[in-house]
Each structure stands twice: as structure tokens, then as C-alpha cells.
Write a structure and sequence with these properties.
By secondary structure, the protein is an alpha+beta fold. Helices cover 29% and strands 26% of the residues.
């Protein structure tokens, strides 16, 4: 006698035995859209905390509408530091694939508060165990886009040597290369050495995830990202490059024993280890999505109009190498809840 199928087994969406698939990649864009729409209401208002809180609230609500068993591995901090989207928090409907999530509901809180450029809502997802559990510390990073031999990258080599190798790889003169660097006092020597080598520089105030994902599109004109920035942002950037075939190296740097102890709690014991792309995002099944909050190099920001808004997003999958840009028009007369309608 044939046993009846359970309601969960009838619907593959509800099954706990399937892995992250392409449909979820499109669903997760709804999550970044929700965060971007909510944060965009605070552009230029000068309140970083309010902008970030709006993005966090909207992103969490959107996550909890998805068929998955998600676990935050890169998030807003530890549980005692963040009320939601903290590391270890479970999101989703509690049914479906087990997924590790790296996120930044608002990459560029200061940018948003000041009405600057390159603020994003960002999510990366992978099968369980798919991301380095990077603590909230700094990371030395160097990254290039698709088609470049990863062996040219070296965190310890003089930048002049690496730029010479990159120029040969791209069949360009060093003088034509564009290097993206965060504008920080700690990068003064790096900036001087890049200029001495003859390369051009674009300095950014914030938003190094946006800078790294710009490497995925040759039309954006950025040939290399280098410098020290947030370690969680490094994992998010690596997820994007894993989807497109770029290359990256990262090494955690610690300011104090508290940060080292936190790293040990996440299972990191080799404090000098250099991680390549597969070390930062080990999974072969990675998805990355981002929606622009303010205008930037990669994405246009949210455009609000009477009772609605337009968003510009990008979504990538490592298994297929597909990159989709999605422009959406949101009608707040019909769309309610976490999509950032009227105050």
C-alpha cells in the first residue's frame, strides 16, 4: 500500500533536503530591495543610526518571508550587540534548505546619512559552512576582476611589483590602471607607492563592498582594489567575486586581544593566515545580491516618487556565473509591510 506523501514532501519548497537553488536567488533580491527602500527614506537626514535601523528592520522582515532555514554568519554583531540580524540568528520560515547568510543591511551608513554615493543593501548566501566566520575586525585585502591570474596577487609584495604584473596580464600600461583605495590615514604610504608606480587612483570615503564588486564589470574602469577595511565586508566582497571569477586575498588584522579572543570563538586560530577566494567563500554554491540605496559606481540609488519608488539591483550565482541586473518599480498603494512605503 502506497503511503501518502506528507505536505512537506509534496512541495519541494518546503522540503528540508534540498539545496539552495536559482529561485531563491531571485527571491533574495526582494530582501535587498526592502532594506534599500527603507534606508532611502533617510538619505541626507544626518542620522546614521536611524538609517541603519530602518534597513535592518526591513531586511529581517523580508528574510522571514522566505522558505529557508537561514543562519546569520556575518551580520550586525553578536547577540549582545545587536537586537536583530546578529551572528547566529535564524531567519526564514524554518523550512527548506539550510543556508548560511552574510549581510550588510546598509553598507554605507555615513554615506546614506550625508547623501553621498555607493551606499548598498547587500546579502550573500551559501550552503551551510559556505563562508569564513570573519569577526568584526580589519582585513588586509587585494582584489582583481575576472580573467586575471590569481597568482599575481600578494599581500606582502611591493605594490609596484603587483601593478606591473597586472599591467602585463591586462596588456596595459601601468599608467592606464585605476586602483581603488579607501581614503584613510593608514593608507598614506600605499597611496604614495601606487602613485610612484605611475598608476591612477580613485579614493573612496566608504563602501568597499561596492568598490570590489565594481571589479566584476570592466565598463566601470576599476582594475584593482587594495587596502585595509572591514573583515565582514571582505567576505561579502569575496562572495561577489566567487560568482564572477575574480580573485582576492585577505588577511585578518587585530587591534587588541579582545578581537583575537572573538576570532577564536569563531574557530580562527591561525591569526596570520592569508585567505584566498576559496578560503573566504568555500562553497561552490554562492549567491550574491545588492540593491543601490544611493547612486554609485555599480548601481543607481532608490528613486522615490508619489506613492512609489524604483530600485536597481544586481544578483549573481556562482554555479552558473549568471549576473542579472534588475530594475523594479514599487507601487506603495499595493505593496505594504517591509517595502518602505510612507512614514
Amino acid at each position: 500500500m502506497m503511503r501518502p506523501m506528507s505536505s512537506e514532501s509534496k512541495d519541494p519548497k518546503l522540503s528540508s533536503n534540498f539545496t539552495m537553488d536559482r529561485n531563491l536567488a531571485l527571491e533574495v533580491v526582494r530582501v535587498t530591495e526592502a532594506a534599500a527602500l527603507a534606508a532611502a527614506k533617510e538619505i541626507g537626514r544626518g542620522d546614521e543610526k536611524k538609517a541603519d535601523a530602518a534597513a535592518v528592520d526591513a531586511m529581517r522582515a523580508a528574510f522571514n518571508s522566505l522558505y529557508m532555514r537561514g543562519r546569520i554568519v556575518i551580520g550586525e554583531g553578536e547577540r549582545d550587540e545587536a537586537p536583530m540580524l546578529y551572528i547566529g540568528e535564524e531567519v526564514g520560515l524554518g523550512r527548506g534548505p539550510e543556508i548560511d547568510i552574510a549581510l550588510d543591511p546598509l553598507e554605507g551608513t555615513t554615506i546614506t546619512a550625508n547623501g553621498g554615493q555607493n551606499a548598498l543593501a547587500v546579502v550573500a548566501m551559501a550552503d551551510k559552512g559556505g563562508f569564513l566566520n570573519a569577526p568584526d575586525t580589519y582585513m588586509d585585502k587585494i582584489a582583481v576582476g575576472p580573467g586575471i591570474d590569481p597568482d599575481i596577487l600578494d599581500l606582502d609584495a611591493p605594490i609596484e611589483q603587483t601593478l606591473a604584473k597586472l599591467a602585463r596580464e591586462k596588456n596595459m600600461d601601468i599608467q592606464d590602471l585605476m586602483v581603488c583605495i579607501l581614503d584613510r590615514p593608514r593608507h598614506e604610504a600605499l597611496i604614495n607607492n601606487v602613485r610612484k608606480a605611475g598608476a591612477r587612483i580613485t579614493l573612496i570615503q566608504d563602501g568597499d563592498v561596492s568598490a570590489v564588486i565594481s571589479l566584476t564589470d570592466p565598463d566601470k574602469g576599476i582594475d584593482m582594489y587594495v587596502g585595509s577595511g572591514g573583515a565582514p565586508e571582505g567576505v561579502l566582497a569575496a562572495a561577489a567575486l566567487k560568482c564572477t571569477g575574480g580573485a582576492m586575498l585577505g588577511r585578518l588584522t587585530f587591534r587588541n586581544d579582545t578581537e583575537r579572543a572573538r576570532a577564536e570563538r569563531w574557530g580562527i586560530t591561525d591569526f596570520d593566515k592569508i585567505y584566498d577566494l576559496n578560503g573566504l567563500a568555500p562553497s561552490d554554491n554562492v549567491m550574491f545580491a545588492a540593491t543601490g540605496v544611493t547612486d554609485g559606481t555599480m548601481l543607481r540609488g532608490v528613486r522615490r516618487f508619489a506613492k512609489g519608488a524604483k530600485t536597481h539591483s544586481i544578483v549573481m550565482r556562482s554555479t552558473s556565473g549568471t549576473i542579472r541586473e534588475i530594475e523594479a518599480t514599487h507601487n506603495f498603494k499595493r505593496k505594504t509591510g517591509f517595502y518602505g512605503g510612507e512614514h
